[in-house]
């Protein structure tokens, strides 16, 4: 069953809107996988913005829930139960 879990993990997509991010650090502090880092680039407001540096996202959505700027979206596949 582990290969199926790995396949699901790869299909989880995390999107961070660089223009909304203000580098508050909340997303980095709650990520259990510690895969969110700061970009070296700046957004138009002069902030370094958060980026994801790995495909290891578990889809927990902690980062999206805590983000005060609503800059993070998690797209994870719906689970097929009984289909």
What is the 3D shape?
globular
The share of residues in helices is 10-25%
Strand order of the largest sheet: 1-4
**Tally of separate helices:** 3
**Total beta strand runs:** 4
Describe the sheet with the most strands: 2 strands, antiparallel
Distance between the termini: 17 Å
Q: Overall mean pLDDT score?
A: 86
Rg on CA atoms, Å:
14 Å
Q: In sequence order, what are the helices and strands, one letter per element?
A: HEHEEHE
Q: Give the uncertain stretches in residue-range form.
A: none
The helix-and-strand class reads alpha+beta
What amount of the residues lies in strands?
15-25%
Oligomer: single chain
Walk me through this protein's architecture.
24% of the residues lie in helices and 24% in strands. The chain starts with a helix and ends in an 8-residue tail after the last strand. With 83 residues, the chain is an alpha+beta fold. The protein has a two-stranded antiparallel sheet with strand order 1-4. It has a two-stranded antiparallel sheet with strand order 2-3. It contains three helices and four strands, in the order αβαββαβ. The mean pLDDT is 86. Strand 2 and strand 3 form a beta hairpin.
């Amino acid at each position: 069953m582990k290969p199926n879990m790995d396949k699901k993990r790869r299909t989880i997509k995390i999107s961070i809107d660089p223009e909304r991010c203000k580098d508050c650090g909340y997303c980095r502090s709650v990520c259990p996988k510690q895969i969110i880092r700061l970009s070296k680039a700046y957004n138009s407001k002069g902030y370094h913005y958060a980026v994801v540096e790995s495909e290891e996202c578990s889809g927990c959505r902690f980062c999206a829930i805590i983000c005060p700027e609503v800059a993070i979206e998690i797209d994870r596949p719906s689970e097929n139960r009984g289909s």
